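**Reference record**
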Amino acid sequence: MKSLTLESLQVAMNNYGPNEGKYTGTIHFKGQYGAIELVLAPSISEHVLALCADALVENAKDVANNLTAAIINQVDRQLAPPVAIPPAMPATPDDLPF
């Protein structure tokens, strides 16, 4: 038996029609003998989103933490006092190469 490969899964909010304000979606599978598309009703689409919810929250936290760290590093660099470069020592007779 040949298997089907998931090509895409899409869930989106409907902005018009009988499902306005609800999530619906499609799933596309492809196999050796052709392709199939499944249309997801609002109840199934909501289950798909619920399965993703925990991962979405964790990813959002990671993005927020990384952004906060980048902002803090940038502010620290801007507030750090400039490093003084010592002046070059004038040449003396002892510094001559001969």
In short: The mean pLDDT is 86.
